[in-house]
């Protein structure tokens, strides 16, 4: 059984000590007794070696991009360059207090300013803020900017936001946080926004459309110019969800497609690590007419000096206590500098190449509902396997674990049944893609020959199909001694 | 540099397999009108050697606060980070993983989050904690949103003694139209208890109390405020410094319904303001409304202990437009740093760190007073206080000249923080500079 660090505690065990001090311990006099803690917090008591072994053991029960292929659709699990980790840990970056005098952080401000400029060029937007700490945080910031824009024009009847039925859950959840009623636009038979449906939904009550392009099926919204015209003609704004930007960097830009606001995920497109669920960074870019609404502070440059400007009367305000996830920005900056003017296009080309290669190789054995040229990812379906053998997308995922791969995203997007959303990224070799194809073909054979084995998979992992229903019915969210 | 591993001849063969002629044809579905059709206007690619040189030069244009006497706090603190923390964070199975959607491949990360939730719940004295939020400010804003949702009321009472940046973040989140911020004045460095209680009514969703507050002071009228807000059916939201909880009575014992805070002091570097982590703890009653990820313990098919993401019906990917929050990615790696930090310093270590911080702050006050300076407020504090200074900007400049990072500039005062990294000698230098200015 896997022991918790608390269960490894031994009363009195410790390694950490403070330097000696000759100051008197004045606690009882300075703080009113009623304000003091009576009972010690229940924290671990272990020596350093046990702490190190414990977390090393936990790392061995985890799986990252460095462990192997991680084709998790919509998450862009590309290789995270090690030089970027080094850069973010430089004392001149990691040791900076956010409120230090401006003259002592000029290098940091320059890095942020330059990163914003490079993101403007990459997306075709006019200005960026780096403050959002994640993609969904960026979406929220973008929706706030859209709301602030309409409000500034006295246009307050725009109470609805349109999102496609294939959208990430964060889109409708974001719109709801901003008080918008969510209107869903259908996908057509080609997996793209149904332009006629969109036209019929538009009115002077629509604040905007939140769109991912390429969309979550990995398909480029070919009618994007027409979509932009329809939304703009009705006075709405167009929001670009940058989750899938890896497919188009250096090839096409949201700004040129007619998007007014756009977010990027530095932790996807720009190779910063996902950290097991964060930290991310979700910068927002806007067109010129929205610049005034960006969060404060804004980084300004005058002569050779950089400064943080709070004097922005039309700004939406702050969405993060400081300036966002600076350490993540350093890594993205290093990545863009490494790849430069030619490298980013290579990223998109090879991401799309790898996705289409996998799609082509799998098309004979798995159903691919929209089987045509895709971008950085595509959605396969296990519906054929389910119908013929009872093996589901979840079983396929668990079968992949036994074969040493991280599974793709399953059961998303919602408009594809038994969905397997596969995004290989550009940093995978053909050999690895071939091995992944071979694993999926083997799973298909096993589904026909021995479906029960797949239903019981994984057989080689540390655990097997945890009971999620029980976990939700009687939630145990912390350890308690003796329980 | 380039991280694409397939050489051109392999790319050629892959294109043949797909049945298309060139890389360009891979983008045939993008209308010509929206294609860039030119090179990006960016610098040329750099080798790792060039990159290393350029980044080192950029970093060298900053003055690292954490290797100098740093008395700057105001929400970000220069606490010591044991070497073990950084060492373990570099285990790449942790940092190159995604959110643990596949429990069989993520037991290590899931268990570490479960341990984190346990530590935060124990530290705050609350029933449960989530897997983390973006930072202290956004965690507090989400707490306010939750309070409005659950009470079906609109008003959030927000004292002036709460961190000004947090207040701004809450104000921005209020754009959603579901909450109305009611500002409350301070009185002598704490939330004015009269002003708080007189503003509480049947529309009050919650009172927010930061404790110790932005000025470093203990909110000494906390009990009265707690009774008033609960008496009116509202919630008490507390924002706390996690290090202080080694010494101070935790929010759970004060009757807080939600406790949040900035987790950066727990093993995360200053890093110019981020990445940090917001911790978020609540009573069991609010469990099914808590935003963000939650990890629960269960068993697998063979009866083995297992950890999974749980109560996901609250979250955006299931509930979509009905979700209370849109949060998806959080600050998992920063939460792991906090977990390892709390493990390494341990139960006794955290208490000693808290007492040391407080002891140093008491010593500094004593010495400053001896040098003829006065504190701006006469209130008990934990590790931070405001000292009255006519021209705080000039004081900071004078300190910087001596290689000391001074305090946060308030009107007519300097807010000074004392972590366990500070020494008696450093404080003596601080006092000598500030004392010199006071006597000019």
What does this structure look like?
- The complex is a heterodimer of chains A (483) and B (440).
- Chain A has helices at residues 27-30, 48-60, 82-88, 91-94, 106-123, 135-152, 170-177, 195-201, 224-233, 254-257, 326-362, 383-389, 393-402, 430-449, 451-455, 468-473; strands at 127-129, 160-164, 181-185, 206-212, 237-241, 261-263, 284-286, 298-302, 305-309, 378-381, 409-410, 419-422.
- With 483 residues, chain A is of the alpha/beta class.
- In chain A, strands 1-7-6-5-4-2-3 form a seven-stranded mixed sheet, with helices on both faces. A three-stranded antiparallel sheet of chain A has the order 10-12-11, covered by helices on one side. A two-stranded antiparallel ribbon of chain A has the order 8-9.
- In chain A, helix 10 links the parallel strand 5 (237-241) and strand 6 (261-263).
- In chain A, helix 3 packs antiparallel against helix 11 (326-362) and helix 5 packs parallel to helix 11.
- Chain B is an alpha/beta fold and 440 residues long.
- Chain B has two domains: 65-80 and 346-438, Aspartate Aminotransferase, domain 1 (Alpha-Beta Complex); 83-340, Aspartate Aminotransferase, domain 2.
- In chain B, helix 7 links the parallel strand 2 (155-159) and strand 3 (180-184).
- In chain B, helix 5 (107-124) packs parallel to helix 12 (332-370) and helix 6 (136-151) crosses helix 7.
- The model of chain B has no long low-confidence stretch (mean pLDDT 97).
- The interface between A and B is large, with 202 and 204 residues.
